[in-house]
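Can't paste images in this forum, so I'm doing it all in text. The chain is below; anyone willing to post the predicted structure tokens underneath?
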Amino acid sequence: MRILILGDVIGQPGIRAVVSALKGLVRDHRADVVIVNGENADEGFGISPAIADQLFKAGADVITTGNHVWHHDDIGDLLNGNPRVLRPDNYPGGAPGSGLYIHEGRGGRVAVINLQGRDRMPAIDCPFRRARDILKRIKGQADAVVVDFHAESTEEKEAFAHYLDGDVTVVYGTHTHVQTADERILPGGTAAITDIGACGPDQSVIGFDPAISVRRVITQLPLRNEVAANAATLHGLVVTTGEPAPRAASVERIQFRSLI
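Text version of the structure:
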């Protein structure tokens, strides 16, 4: 089974790039399952039902998110109404939605888990312990297990991947928007990358207007970021499952520059 994963979609440039390119990427990489992180899709912050529909129609099977998923007050309706839109599972009890979905496709069953780190992030429940709880709950229910770990710290991301080595197919980082060049298969058979990057404007600062970002740094004023207005580059990962499950056989970083 081949799993195509795309990083954080940022604003309209990211949406346009995904909508225009995804079918071709699925064909070229012979993907059986497509997972997209959509937490920055709505003008850089959050996701709406309309945008989720766009991503699903473009070919996404599951949408993961992160800390910005709560940007819109009505996000609970989307999370509770569509189980294929995930939020980090380790938010405390009472939060709408779920961080787990088992997708059944032509290649088999893929469990998608969405978790969030705690280092320099909101103080929520432990992602390490929550991951173990989820894996116990779904044992025997999936042929592959994919984990979107939405986190700030490189150390936390790498520790998390090693913690789950051998028990999941792939652990990939999201949130920092810059693709790292450390894709590898760990000793236990789990594919890992610190961050798969973003699907956002190429000439930008993590997807946002460079002029505003520079002014924020220089003045230390709490200026609101705005998504940069130029063509996007899609960053992601292709993972091939191996034997015995849930090991990975191969992992490949991908980049695709959109022309629109």
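The chain has six helices and 13 strands. The radius of gyration is 17 Å.
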